[in-house]
Amino acid sequence: MHKVIAIGDQMRMTPMLNLTVLPGKTVSFTTGSAHLMLIAPTTPLRRGQIVELDFICSDGDSLRTSFDVVYSQ
Ligand SMILES: [Cu+2]
Questions:
Q1: Which of 3, 26, 33, 69 could form a disulfide with 49 if both were Cys (CB 3.0 to 4.6 A apart)?
Q2: How far is the CA of 53 from the centre of ligand 1 (A)?
Q3: What separation in Å is there between the alpha carbon of 58 and the centre of ligand 1?
Q4: Cα(16) to centroid of ligand 1, in Å?
Q5: Rounded distance from Cα 20 to ligand 1 centre (Å)
Q6: Cα-to-centroid distance, 61 and ligand 1 (Å)
Q7: What pLDDT, on a 0 to 100 scale, did the predictor assign at position 30?
Q8: Which are the contacts of 15, defined by CB distance < 8 A and separation ≥ 6?
Q9: CA torsion sign, 31 to 2 to 34 to 30?
Q10: Are the C-beta atoms of residues 52 and 66 closer than 8 Å to each other?
Q11: What is the pLDDT, as a whole number, of residue 9?
Protein backbone atom coordinates (compact mmCIF):
# COMPACT_ATOMS: atom_id res chain seq x y z
CA MET A 1 0.00 0.00 0.00
CA HIS A 2 1.25 3.43 -0.90
CA LYS A 3 0.04 6.93 -0.31
CA VAL A 4 0.95 9.99 -2.33
CA ILE A 5 2.32 12.98 -0.47
CA ALA A 6 3.45 16.41 -1.62
CA ILE A 7 7.10 17.23 -1.03
CA GLY A 8 7.63 20.78 -2.17
CA ASP A 9 6.16 20.97 -5.65
CA GLN A 10 6.54 17.24 -6.31
CA MET A 11 4.26 14.33 -5.50
CA ARG A 12 5.91 11.20 -4.13
CA MET A 13 4.71 7.72 -3.20
CA THR A 14 5.47 6.54 0.29
CA PRO A 15 4.64 3.16 1.84
CA MET A 16 1.59 2.81 4.07
CA LEU A 17 2.61 0.39 6.79
CA ASN A 18 -0.93 -0.20 7.99
CA LEU A 19 -4.49 0.82 7.26
CA THR A 20 -7.21 1.36 9.83
CA VAL A 21 -10.80 0.88 8.68
CA LEU A 22 -13.30 1.75 11.37
CA PRO A 23 -16.46 -0.37 11.74
CA GLY A 24 -19.07 0.61 9.16
CA LYS A 25 -16.61 2.80 7.26
CA THR A 26 -14.92 2.33 3.90
CA VAL A 27 -11.56 3.30 2.50
CA SER A 28 -11.00 4.09 -1.16
CA PHE A 29 -7.83 3.42 -3.09
CA THR A 30 -7.49 5.66 -6.13
CA THR A 31 -4.82 6.63 -8.60
CA GLY A 32 -2.89 9.62 -7.29
CA SER A 33 -3.89 8.97 -3.70
CA ALA A 34 -3.76 5.87 -1.52
CA HIS A 35 -3.28 2.90 -3.80
CA LEU A 36 -2.28 -0.71 -3.86
CA MET A 37 0.73 -1.48 -6.02
CA LEU A 38 1.34 -5.09 -6.95
CA ILE A 39 5.02 -5.50 -7.66
CA ALA A 40 6.00 -8.52 -9.77
CA PRO A 41 2.61 -10.29 -9.74
CA THR A 42 2.86 -14.03 -10.41
CA THR A 43 0.50 -13.74 -13.39
CA PRO A 44 0.26 -10.83 -15.83
CA LEU A 45 -2.45 -8.27 -15.04
CA ARG A 46 -4.29 -6.17 -17.56
CA ARG A 47 -6.20 -2.94 -17.16
CA GLY A 48 -9.88 -3.53 -16.46
CA GLN A 49 -9.26 -6.89 -14.86
CA ILE A 50 -10.67 -7.52 -11.39
CA VAL A 51 -8.26 -9.00 -8.88
CA GLU A 52 -9.22 -10.54 -5.55
CA LEU A 53 -6.76 -10.09 -2.72
CA ASP A 54 -6.76 -11.36 0.83
CA PHE A 55 -5.79 -8.94 3.57
CA ILE A 56 -4.57 -10.32 6.86
CA CYS A 57 -5.86 -8.19 9.73
CA SER A 58 -3.94 -7.46 12.91
CA ASP A 59 -6.41 -9.64 14.86
CA GLY A 60 -5.65 -12.62 12.60
CA ASP A 61 -8.85 -12.44 10.56
CA SER A 62 -8.60 -12.21 6.81
CA LEU A 63 -10.64 -10.13 4.43
CA ARG A 64 -11.05 -10.88 0.72
CA THR A 65 -11.50 -7.75 -1.37
CA SER A 66 -11.87 -7.13 -5.11
CA PHE A 67 -9.90 -4.46 -6.91
CA ASP A 68 -10.07 -3.12 -10.44
CA VAL A 69 -6.72 -3.07 -12.22
CA VAL A 70 -6.38 0.55 -13.36
CA TYR A 71 -2.78 0.46 -14.56
CA SER A 72 -0.59 -2.27 -15.95
CA GLN A 73 2.70 -2.36 -17.81
CU1 LIG B 1 2.68 3.07 -5.53
A1: 69
A2: 16
A3: 22
A4: 10
A5: 18
A6: 25
A7: 81
A8: 1, 2
A9: positive
A10: yes
A11: 95
- What's the CA-to-centroid distance between 7 and ligand 1, angstroms? 15
Residue 53: predicted pLDDT: 92
How many residues comprise the chain?
A: 73
Cα–ligand 1 centroid distance for 69 (angstroms): 13
Phi, psi of 67 (to 5 degrees): -130, 145
Domain span holding position 48: 2-21+31-68
Model pLDDT, residue 70: 86
Is there a domain that residue 47 lies in?
Answer: yes
User: Count of H helices and E strands in the chain?
Assistant: 0, 4
Mean pLDDT of residues grouped by 10 in the chain (73 residues)? 93 91 88 86 92 90 90 81
